[in-house]
Amino acid sequence: MDDSELAAQLAHHAGRIALAIRDSGLIAGRALGDAGDEAANRFLCRAIAQHRPDDGLLSEESADTETRLGKDRVWIIDPVDGTREYGEGRSDWAVHIGLTIGGVARIGAVALPALDLVLRSDRPLALPAAPATPRIVVSRSRPPAQALAMAEAIGADLVPMGSAGAKAMAVVRGEAEIYLHAGGQHQWDNCAPAAVAAAHGLHVSRLDGAPLVYNARDTSMPDLLICRPELAERVLAEIAALPC
């Protein structure tokens, strides 16, 4: 099984595990999010160790070690991205399986389990035609000031949504044209989404246009831009013009 197929299968099965726990109705609220995260993470860590024993691993739900820093190939995963949405019974949560090679997100699979969908870097879909008015996906509760300023600058509509993976895949699926995040993330929040988005021909970078670099010692990833390629130059220019 090649890396792309492995990533997709892992994302799918981890999502099924999380859904089964939610659908059981035995747990609710914060405890449900914790249980889904733990079960999906346990499955993923064991599966990666079995199928790719020589690769490194960074997971949101496992203690980080320095072992991965000496590896060229490192899997970066988020077993349940959007535990709040997952716990509330919503559909805008995701499972992230990313593989970095030399610090670059090369392969990714993002499952949207509640929609029975897995987006893959090895099976890009054609981007649908963009509407006349661009749409920016933002946090349901904490839309970043930069996104609000961008919407005003370019006349975009705001689309509130849950997890980072759901937002990124909304751009991939043509439900929005821009995902701009400035509130601070970690590598597991965007590694797989970045790989999938780039494979679909979208612009993917930091807010200053710099490339995303993974498997760094510091797991933080302060900002992110995923957008339609034809909008990238204008969006980056508008970001640069925003007051610090």
UniProtKB/TrEMBL annotation:
It holds the Pfam family Inositol_P. GO terms for molecular function: 3'(2'),5'-bisphosphate nucleotidase activity. It is an enzyme of class 3 (hydrolase). Gene3D superfamilies: 3.40.190.80, Fructose-1,6-Bisphosphatase, subunit A, domain 1. Keywords: Hydrolase. It comes from the Bacteria. Its EC number is 3.1.3.7. This is 3'(2'),5'-bisphosphate nucleotidase CysQ. The lineage of its organism: Bacteria, Pseudomonadati, Pseudomonadota, Alphaproteobacteria, Sphingomonadales.
